[in-house]
UniProtKB/TrEMBL annotation:
This is Uncharacterized protein. InterPro entries: SDr-like. It comes from the Eukaryota.
Amino acid sequence: MNVDVDIHVDIDVDIDVDVDIDVDIDVDIDVDIDVDVDIDVDIDVDIDVDVDIDVDIYVDVDIDVDIDVDIDVDISTSNIHIKYPHQYPHQYPH
């Protein structure tokens, strides 16, 4: 067995970093707060309640019912003849 390994690595790195940072911060804060609060509250409540309730209820009910029923039934059964020829055919000729 014959193993022949030939590795050739050539790395060339050239890094050139040039950083120029110029920061100029000028902060001028001028705060002037002038608060003038003038609260004047004048509450005047005058409540006058006068309730006068006068209730007069007068109920006069007069009911007069007069019922007069007159039923006259007159049933007269005279002169009614009932014949049954199918029961007595020999008495009633056709």
